[in-house]
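Schema walkthrough. Field components (list of strings):
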Amino acid sequence: MSRLELNDVSYVYGEGTPFRTEALKNIDLSFSDGKITGLIGHTGSGKSTLVQLLNGLLKPTSGKVLLDGKDIWEKPKEIGKIRFRVGLVMQYPEYQLFDETVHKDIAFGPKNCGLSDQEIENAVLEAAEFVGLDKNILDKSPFEISGGQKRRAAIAGVIAMHPEVLILDEPAAGLDPRGRREILGGLKEYQRRNGTTVILVSHSMEDMAYYCDEVVVMNKAKVLMSGCVSDVFSKSAELESVGLDIPRIAHIAKALSDMGYDLKGELYTVDGVKNAIEKYIASIS
Amino acid sequence: MSENIKNISDTASDVPFIKVENLSYSYENDGVPSEPALRDISLEIREGEYVAVLGHNGSGKSTFAKLLNMILTTDKGKIIIDGTEITSSSMTDDDMFEVRRKVGMVFQNPDNQLVATIVEEDVAFGPENLGLPRDEIRKRVYSSLDMVGMRDYSKHAPHKLSGGQKQRVAIAGIIAMRPRCIIFDESTAMLDPLGRKEVMSIIKRLNRDEGITVIQITHYMEEAAMADRVIIINDGTIAADSTPRDIFSRVDFLKSVGLEAPQGTELIWELRKDGFDLPDNCVTDEECIAALSELFEKTLKGKKDEQA
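Field assembly_structure (string):
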């Protein structure tokens, strides 16, 4: 049994109105513990609805969201507690910073979890380190730091609560390549050290290939496919049929395989393809 | 006589549409100037060019775009657009309005740019402010919506559109002003892959078919690859100004300025480092595939010859 599961979950917006939309239809899904699962799909595929259901911001129209085997809506009045256990970093979280200093902003979550002052201090410093925030930034106002730093501060605020499940909706959107690498790399390091279950929503197939262990593909309110990264990216035709793509490097590897060159291995990252090519050349020379 | 005309048109095409001379800019923090965001930049952009501007966050590229559109002003250096020095102290509000009509700007967040509650009213906002007659406004609104493929949505509410559709409406609003140049300031950053494709194909078409000068600021290398020319800004200065092919094949340099080469180029570069005999100028996926299959064939042939 996984820590976080969806059991026949459906969600309908605008029930009883002419705008009724089924955002999710009968979803059965479990997220592997201690892994990074990527969540991909078009705008409107249902992935944002899904992440909001996972931490109780939305309540399923039917079906159950199970955390450690328990329905999170069993005691609706205590749904707030779920949000400490399932932390959600929304898209463009930098717009949600509000406190006087970056330090206070990051400390807001842990404080409300009921941690001691020393624990809060440790949590803040540790979270800041993972997202790559300099110590001297912590005393500044969140409004006088750069956009990239704001993003990091907002992510640190959720990490500092040490949620069992951490969900991030496009945490690297709008950042330059180096910024993406630093933030996503920091997250992977955090996940590796703490064994947190991470769900990463992204449009970037390259990031999925590089940082995720497993991938869930959403399409038209349903799960189109799920599995480990190599399984999902090997189904390029299916992905393309719903307008999704595979990483560019995977295109190159696939074209070469289709030409009859026998490349084997993880053919969806630059390193993976490089290794496959070097092995192939060794085998033919 | 015919020679005369030729001479005139020759001179016209030699005059840059945008000329930047020794431009610097510093933001102020409580009245104290901080580290300059731009240092002594000089460049020229010709009418009809498609220029991509790359640089990591905080490199100064957005500052540059804002200076071109007079969202920011400076007295350090000159910007001359279509013969008018916009950095001059004698610029009036009317002059500024004219600059913004000629040089339109599409921003990153589609939600921050739409003002009206119906798509066609939003597109009409600019032309209405130009004081054009009603018929002309209507004509421009519909032709602009046609150009971005949003005519069918003219009576829709903007907030119900997808991100890509919103950006297309924002672009239509700019086109309706009949600009000579459009600056796209990371206009695809908040869109999903489908939305990005939609907007990119419109940008290409505006440049190719309408002759509009395009300056596109982006983090996406595959978008920059579509431009005629790529300018890389790093720490407030121009670190490179060349063709996409030339720039993308310089993988070490790209890394040093916080950027990345396309994945295929990086693969070839990594293999070259390991001693494989591959060309150093592969940029498109097709070129990378061709180069690799050639290497495989050579190796296979070498083995056959050996066996023979």
